[in-house]
Design goal:
Cofactor: dipyrromethane
Number of helices: 11
Distance between the termini: 55 Å
EC number: 2.5.1.61
Pfam families: Porphobil_deam, Porphobil_deamC
Subunit structure: Monomer.
Bound molecules: ligand PBG
Helix content: 25-40%
CATH topology of the largest domain: D-Maltodextrin-Binding Protein, domain 2
CATH architecture of the largest domain: 3-Layer(aba) Sandwich
Catalytic activity: 4 porphobilinogen + H2O = hydroxymethylbilane + 4 NH4(+)
């Protein structure tokens, strides 16, 4: 048989995710490494490193070139961090599987202090994430922020070099790279709600490639897929506006229930709206969508209008 071609970004985290997918497919189907070919594809998100994600196009930035390779048949599957995926998937492509979720929480990584609470007044925090900045500003309005982009190692190097006092990273990424010890404080999902999809690897394939779809669906994790339906439903209803700090976290409860939490904030952290609700797993997507509609209504038009207006030309 011809090798299954896996498309991925080239960062250490992306390669670790592709290896995990390969290992799970090998275990499920009795295949070995020779049955796979890992193809590294560079994305705009890997090349543009000096501006916040929200300015250069947000979601899609880490996926477009990979999706083009998939659609054109240069690769058979694409492996992504679900957090980086837009809610609209290009025509002809499908999210065929989600792997069992890693730790969904964020970690604080401090150089001059080990915890958020003990950071010195006015400390400089590096992050390109509007969500992390907004949540942190609520907790510590005195902190200053600078955009810190690049892959996880680059960011940790900039931190170690003293460019910033602290940064925040997903524990999932640190764990996958064997760098869990970098975290100086683990942030609970209650204090620091994660991004929709955080910690979940997804596999994208062509919707008409039945053989590949069957192979990949064998490693799908139903619990993660269900949680992601709710979180991505929430994100889709908020229109995935890349300038809206959005957080969401769904977990499965007893007796077929799903617990959902969603939050929207203004980028300066001064306004925040949050909802928590429980429903049935079969309604996962609509639980997320209704939660978003509720928050949009509660927040009111001024919440978005004040800061989400398109930039003036020039
Ligand atoms: N946008 C970068 C990105 N996309 C996914 C992860 C972490 C791994 C995950 O959430 O699955 C990261 C780095 C980070 O936020 O620390």
């Amino acid at each position: 048989m011809t090798a299954l071609r896996i498309g991925t970004r080239g960062s250490q985290l992306a390669l670790a995710q592709a290896s995990e997918v390969r290992a799970r497919l090998m275990a499920a189907h009795g295949m070995d490494e020779a049955d796979f070919e890992i193809t590294v594809i560079s994305t705009a998100g890997d090349r543009i490193l000096d501006r916040p994600l929200s300015e250069v196009g947000g979601k899609g930035l880490f996926t477009k070139e990979i999706e083009e390779a998939l659609a054109s048949g240069r690769i058979d599957i694409a492996v992504h961090s679900s957090k980086d995926m837009a809610t609209a998937i290009p025509e002809g492509l499908v999210l065929a599987a989600f792997l069992p979720r890693e730790d969904v929480r964020d970690a604080f990584i401090g150089r001059t202090a080990e915890t958020i609470a003990t950071l010195p007044e006015g400390a400089l925090v590096g992050s390109a994430s509007l969500r992390r900045q907004a949540i942190l500003k609520r907790m510590r309005p005195d902190l200053r922020f600078v955009i810190l982009r690049g892959n996880v190692q680059t960011r940790l190097r900039k931190l170690a070099a003293g460019e910033v006092d602290a940064t925040l990273l997903a524990i999932a990424g640190l764990n996958r790279m064997g760098m869990a010890e970098a975290a100086t404080e683990i942030l609970s999902t209650e204090d620091f709600m994660p991004a929709p999809g955080q910690g979940a690897i997804c596999i994208e394939a062509r919707g008409d490639d039945e053989a590949t779809l069957a192979m990949v669906r064998a490693i799908d994790d139903l619990e993660t897929t269900t949680a992601l339906l709710a979180e991505r439903g929430f994100l889709a209803e908020l229109d995935g506006s890349c300038r809206t700090p959005i957080a969401a976290h769904a977990t499965l409860g007893a007796n077929g229930t799903l617990n959902f939490a969603g939050m929207i904030l203004t980028p300066d952290g001064t306004a925040m709206h949050e909802t928590r609700r429980t429903g049935l797993v079969g309604d996962a997507a609509s639980i997320g969508r209704l939660a978003a509609q509720f928050l949009v209504e509660e927040a009111g038009p001024h919440f978005f209008a004040s800061w989400n207006a398109p930039a003036e030309p020039g």
